[in-house]
Amino acid sequence: MALAASAGSAWPALAAAASSAEKREPELWPQPLAVPGGVARVALGPAPERPRARTAQDVPLLVVGDMIAWTALVGIPLSAQTGASHIEVQGSAAEPARRLAFRIAPKKYREQQLKVPPRTVDLSAEDMARYERERDHQKEVMATWTPPPAGPLQLAVPVPGRRSSSFGLRRVFNGQPRNPHSGMDIAAATGTPVHAPLDGQVIDTGDYFFNGNTVWMDHGGGLLTMYCHLSRIDVRTGDRLATGQVLGQVGATGRVTGPHLHWGVMLNRTMVDPALFIET
Ligand code: ZN
What we know:
The structure is a single chain. The protein is mainly β. The protein folds into two domains: 5-104, Immunoglobulin-like, CATH 2.60.40; 111-277, Glucose Permease (Domain IIA), CATH 2.70.70.10. Helix content is 6%, strand content 35%. The chain has one helix and 19 strands. Strands 10, 12, 13, 14, 16, 18 and 19 form a seven-stranded antiparallel sheet that branches. A hairpin with a 2-residue loop joins strand 8 and strand 9 (176-177). The longest helix has 18 residues, at 125-142. The structure holds zinc ion. Zinc ion binds at residues 181, 183, 185, 262.
């Protein structure tokens, strides 16, 4: 898959805007959308070295760009309060941190009713203990931090198929409200190969109570991607994958209503809408 060949410069934000009659915005990946579940792009200005930026909760942020213009990418939790927010930025270790403000606009997500096996909603003591162990493990996986990626952050769609716009839906399982849907579901038959959307390293694989067979990838700078409900996992923790390499196959493991890929994209330990990273 020819990824991001459209951007001549490494950072599309710096590419000259098209000079045709229909003047197009230069392509930005991820697309800016400062709402709960979206990504805010906060301009940090010029600096000789990549500034360090953190959320108000002290989680490191992915900073992209070059010495002419740096930008912090801020993943906004679905549970975030709308209105004024801020990040902390430091040009170098010697400099004091400065506070940069940004605004989170409201976005209304619809409600979705789902029917699943009762044991996946009202957990037995044993299943609850398993889930809690897995949640603690996932927290460690999500805290992975490696150097930021060098290239553009456009992602390839991991599986061809009908993409639901179900990110952010407030979900009600068997009549009981649960966490909102924090990924993109792509409909595909069991056995369909799932491809890495960007170069990266496999940082976790496992069979989890809700997510079924799962693969996590680290793309650097806190940009992680997650693949759930797989029928088969074809990689191991530590494997380095190039864009397009197969990591597993679509399935229906875990809490699902049928075979599909659940695709999660994470920035600063926050699940954000994968649609902001792909050509739609
Ligand atoms: Zn899903």
